[in-house]
Design a protein that fits this description.
34% of the residues lie in helices and 23% in strands. Strands 1-2-3-4-6-5 form a six-stranded antiparallel β-sheet. A hairpin with a 6-residue loop joins strand 1 and strand 2. The radius of gyration is 14 Å and the shape is globular. The termini are far apart.
Length: 127
């Protein structure tokens, strides 16, 4: 997946999530997606390549970095709780969708009061 496709795919998934909003608090070079005012995804090309940075469970983050060469510790974020996705050949669109959704749910569960949740993380996405 090239950088443009990575950004487009991640943004498309983020925009589908209930209560998600796109902001630019760090200027036009950074797309910052939030739910209820809390960041769950950042996108930029300031490093010279397109990257997507997402919240991730620390144990899951380690496993993802071991499994995918295109996943590294989060750029400019807490390396334990955030990961960055890079363009390349190891990430498929479904993995990007899953990681964006997981980041969104992580932020809801750990940073947003339950009374403000736009969805129930325990049942979101189930038929």
């Amino acid at each position: 997946m090239n950088g443009k496709t990575l950004h487009e795919r991640a943004a498309a998934r983020a925009e589908e999530l209930p209560g998600a909003e796109l902001t630019h608090p760090f200027g036009p070079e950074w797309d910052v997606f939030k739910v209820r005012g809390k960041v769950f995804m950042l996108q930029t090309g300031v490093t010279g390549e397109a990257i997507v940075t997402l919240k991730s469970d620390p144990e899951e983050s380690h496993a993802l970095r071991s499994q995918y060469a295109d996943i590294t510790p989060g750029y400019h974020m807490n390396k334990k709780h955030w990961i960055s996705l890079h363009p390349g050949g190891t990430l498929d669109p479904e993995v990007v969708d899953e990681l964006v959704t997981e980041s969104y749910l992580q932020v809801l569960e750990h940073s947003v009061p339950k009374s403000q949740w736009p969805v129930d993380p325990a049942t979101f996405g189930q038929a």
